[in-house]
Structure formats: structure tokens, C-alpha cells
Design brief:
By secondary structure, the protein is mainly β. It is 9% helix and 65% strand. The chain contains one helix and 13 strands, in the order H-E-E-E-E-E-E-E-E-E-E-E-E-E. It is globular and about 65 Å long.
Length: 255
């Protein structure tokens, strides 16, 4: 089983290396953006932050493209077991100095480990369920470093045993540059959101606070999530984590 877990991690590193190399040797005359991040956290918090892995995790993000981008995300528990894979495609419908509007869609694959004991032998099987989702992200920029916006996600479970209809709507603000010193600054993203999963629903508050340095691509981020009111049985009343994040951004232009 450890070989299988290591194999999943190896696939991720191969994909990251492949995309990076491809951008260098196959670049065109159109500037292409290549970015991403590697996150290590004490508690993996899901895309919908009321849910968490409840154990340490590693998250690999990649973004390739410009106006149209491919943004895969690979999430693992630190023991090597896959947690979830998201394969995003996003398109920037509109971008001005004051307003931006992005639409996206993804295939999501959350994984689950099933333990079975037969004839005294215990085995583990890793299974995945399929979800298709779409998102809309309008944002209004009050200034260079401050914006407010909405985020809406609809997800449809494909396989038996999945949540068939998920609606996730947030009202958020983004303070991207709160100076502390010449080199250190904070990023703060508070939001309230409404979540409906089939016939259950609830309201929540969540925020992310990051400490970053202008000269190095490493930041420390903490996420908290608190239930305001909910009847979703799987929701946790309070969730938090602390993460170390390495980020990179490059632009390639053909000769």
C-alpha cells in the first residue's frame, strides 16, 4: 500500500515538472503565465471550509495559462494517501481597473479509504467519487489592495452516495497588502457564506490571515471557520489550521 501512496505523490511531481519544462521549451509568442504553490498544513481544510481532513496535509496548486487557465490542485494527507484532486478550467470574462469577473468549471475527485477485514486479513482500498462543478467570481476593486466580491459554486455529485446538489455562496473582502514593516505585510480575507447540500443548509464565517515577506516567496497562513447557524450534520462547529506556503509565478514569452 505504501508503494501506491508514494506513486500518487510521484505522479504529482512528474506533472509539475512536465508543465514547467513544457513552458520553457514550447513557449509561443504569446506570454504564458505559470504559477503555483506548495502548502504544508497541520490540518487540511477543504475547499468548503466547514469540512476538514483533521490531520496534516500537503497541497500542490498549479496554474497554466493567461485569460484561459488550467488550475489543477492535488491534496494529500502527509502519510501519502490522496485526499482530493480538483481539475479546474477558468476563464477571465472581464477585467478592468475596478471590476473583474471569472467563470470556471472543474471535475472533483475526493478520495476515501475503506478498510475491510476478511478471513483475518485487513486490507485498505482507496476509492474516489466524481463531482462536476461550476463557479462564478465577480469582484469590485475599491483600491489596488482592497476588493469586495461574491463567489458562487454549484456542484453536482455523479456517483451513488454523493451529495447530488451543493450550493455555496460567499460574500467576501480581500485586503492584500497591510504593511507591517518595509518587508513584511499581512493579507486578510474575511467572508460569510451560505451552504446548501441537498436538503440541509447553514450560514458560516471564515477568514484567512497571511504573513508574507516581499523578498521571499514563503508565507504563513491561518484559516478559521465558525458555524453561525446550520443543520448540516457533517459541519464542524469550529475549524482552524496553520500552513506554510511556498509560491511561485513566472511568465514565458516565445522568441
Amino acid at each position: 500500500m505504501m508503494q501506491k501512496k508514494s506513486g500518487y505523490l510521484l505522479i504529482v511531481f512528474i506533472l509539475l515538472a512536465h508543465f514547467s519544462f513544457s513552458q520553457e521549451v514550447e513557449c509561443t509568442k504569446v506570454p504564458v503565465h505559470l504559477g503555483g504553490a506548495v502548502t504544508v498544513t497541520n490540518n487540511g481544510i477543504s475547499f468548503i471550509p466547514t469540512f476538514s481532513l483533521e490531520k496534516p496535509a500537503a497541497i500542490f496548486d498549479l496554474s497554466v495559462g493567461k485569460r484561459l487557465s488550467f488550475d489543477p490542485q492535488f491534496r494529500f494527507a502527509l502519510d501519502g494517501k490522496p485526499w482530493s484532486f480538483l481539475f479546474w478550467f477558468r476563464y477571465k470574462l472581464l477585467k478592468t481597473n475596478k471590476f473583474s469577473f471569472t467563470a470556471g468549471t472543474h471535475l472533483g475527485l475526493p478520495f476515501k479509504t475503506i478498510t475491510e477485514t476478511r478471513n483475518g486479513v485487513t486490507t485498505e482500498t482507496i476509492t474516489a467519487k466524481r463531482y462536476l462543478a461550476g463557479e462564478l467570481t465577480p469582484n469590485y476593486h475599491l483600491s489596488k489592495d482592497v476588493s469586495v466580491g461574491l463567489y458562487y459554486l454549484y456542484s453536482r455529485g455523479i456517483d451513488v452516495g454523493t451529495t447530488k446538489n451543493t450550493n455555496f455562496l460567499t460574500l467576501n473582502a480581500n485586503f492584500s497588502n497591510i504593511p507591517l514593516t518595509k518587508q513584511f505585510y499581512l493579507k486578510f480575507i474575511p467572508q460569510v457564506y451560505y451552504l446548501k447540500m441537498d436538503h440541509q443548509n447553514g450560514f458560516y464565517f471564515t477568514s484567512a490571515l497571511s504573513l508574507a515577506n516581499r523578498k521571499i516567496p514563503v508565507s504563513i497562513t491561518s484559516v478559521i471557520n465558525k458555524v453561525i447557524q446550520t443543520d448540516i450534520s457533517a459541519s464542524k462547529n469550529f475549524v482552524w489550521n496553520l500552513s506554510l506556503i511556498y509560491s511561485f509565478n513566472k511568465k514565458y514569452v516565445g522568441q
